[in-house]
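User: Can you write out an input/output pair for a complex, sequences first and structure second?

Assistant: Here is one pair. Inputs:
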Amino acid sequence: MDDGQTTGSGRTWFVAGMRGIFSLPAMMLMLSFVGFCAFTAQAGIPVEQVVFMVGAVWALPANVILVSSILGGANLLAAFIAVTLSSIRLMPMVAALVAEIRTEKTPTWLLLFLSHFVAITAWVFAMERVHAVPREHRVTFFAGFGITLVVVNMVLVAAVYRYVSEFPPIVAGCLFFLTPVYFLGSIWSSARHPVIYVALVIGLVAGPFFYWLAPQFDILLAGVGGGTLAWLVERQWRKHGRSVHDSV
Amino acid sequence: MTVFEGWWPYVFIAIAGWLATDLWRWLGVLAGNRLREDSEVLNWVRAVATALVAAVIAKLILYPTGVLEHSPLWLRLGSIAAGALAFFAGRQKPAIGITTAIAVLAIGLWAQGF
């Protein structure tokens, strides 16, 4: 399906995207997946299923929630709801990325296929760098990075699975902690809209609050409630700022 | 555990994992063709999306699984605070904040006898 894109300069941009595997975000994500691998190995999930999960679900928070649901004995519907609620954010992420990379000639089926490779890391990487890529090659550039990142992490998880359970506790603990710390740093530093900062801070507080109030719906309530509050607050600041600015 | 055997786990992962995530990615592609980049609706969607992820992050820090389940809460929060300080002092480079947070956690775990 890439026949039309692997020729000429298209191949150059695909390879340029592939080279992104050596970037800091990609390295951080790979370490996080080693941590996730340790988590699944401790939980006793077979390696074939873990590799399938990495390729099929891809987004790390969704993977963590899926495994937590399985371990908690959730049925299919409950697990689906928990994972899907945590993945709503993929919609605006994909929407924003698609607006940046598509041209009028880009077929929708290709975007639907490539959207599978969107998760926080690929998104942050692509949003930062596509501006330096000519518009007609942006889809190819993203495909090169996104597909490589998924495949490399599937291979990585398969390769390290048998060793991670023998990691010293300090290493296992630090690898687990890498995921939340990395997400915090990357979301904050890649935010291109003020509302992101407000929503991140409010969400961090709202998460535990709703976990205490209604543990079964905590993520949904924190997202919709906390997000709406953040949006209102930021909009208020924006309006206030504008009126002050206008009156000057 | 029987739950991890046969074809059922793959169906489970495909429905509760794959479909549950790609659904939103596909909707994102369709919305990306329609939503205006500067619209207020997209701004609200951004806020909700970020708050959702933030809630997941907070849960991973406050209620971890595995080794960290037995680590003290103050150590985990202290690591985050140290990482945040380094992050903002170091021109908001994620690598600086991440390295600091993980280093503080590692030293703390070691001191706690892990």
